[in-house]
Amino acid sequence: xxxxxxxxxxxxxxxxxxxxxxxxxxxxxxxxxxxxxxxxxxxxxxxxxxxxxxxxxxxxxxxxxxxxxxxxxxxxxxxxxxxxxxxxxxxxxxxxxxxxxxxxxxxxxxxxxxxxxxxxxxxxxxxxxxxxxxxxxxxxxxxxxxxxxxxxxxxxxxxxxxxxxxxxxxxxxxxxxxxxxxxxxxxxxx
Amino acid sequence: xxxxxxxxxxxxxxxxxxxxxxxxxxxxxxxxxxxxxxxxxxxxxxxxxxxxxxxxxxxxxxxxxx
Lengths: 190, 66
Known about the structure:
The complex is a heterodimer of chains A (190) and B (66). Helices cover 22% and strands 36% of the residues of chain A. Chain A is an alpha+beta fold. The longest helix of chain A has 27 residues, at 17-43. Chain A is elongated and about 85 Å long. Chain B has one domain (18-64). The A-B interface holds A 5-9, 11-12, 52-55, 59, 62-63, 66-67, 70, 89, 91, 114, 139-140 and B 4-6, 16-17, 19-20, 23-24, 52-56, 59-60, 62-64, 66.
């Protein structure tokens, strides 16, 4: 019984064969799960590895504004529509209650996303794929990202951020080339 | 033998192994289980926070000073 003290010589007694078997069995399961965790990170459809930088809301807003101005191709519901070149840094800003800008990306090209918040904690969740990141003010969360299928993807906030939380929906459009923009209601004006 | 097997004839207790003593002390195990976990997790977090670098200048320059 576990509530009573074990015999005083329990430590020096030889371990029974069946007990040794159970110890080895549980050790194998522990090791298997440990290595499975590493393999699952590499081969499973998990969130990619990230780098975090420190920033300020003013600095990140400035970078986000400069990024939007540089690669802006139009507007969608008063938000800039931005089409950055492949391999570039993409600055996406979350604030109550919008994601800015609307992004147009090319299929099978790499981008480096920089995510941050201007006010409170937001959640960056790309639907319908399984990507979820917490977006914090004063931190720049950086992830390498390669869209592999064309289409329109929604960014929803999955951290409750106030009364307009449910309306905080952003947009990422993935295209093969610029001729497909019309399919997604985007008119190139710049 | 009715007397405890660990008790030698002159009444002295044999020296317990360190791990034996540790495993026999339930409350110390409980405290260690909480303290070791809390400290290592907190220290890991503090190291992560203190080790976070600012955004590299080369990334900023491409946008702010093209």
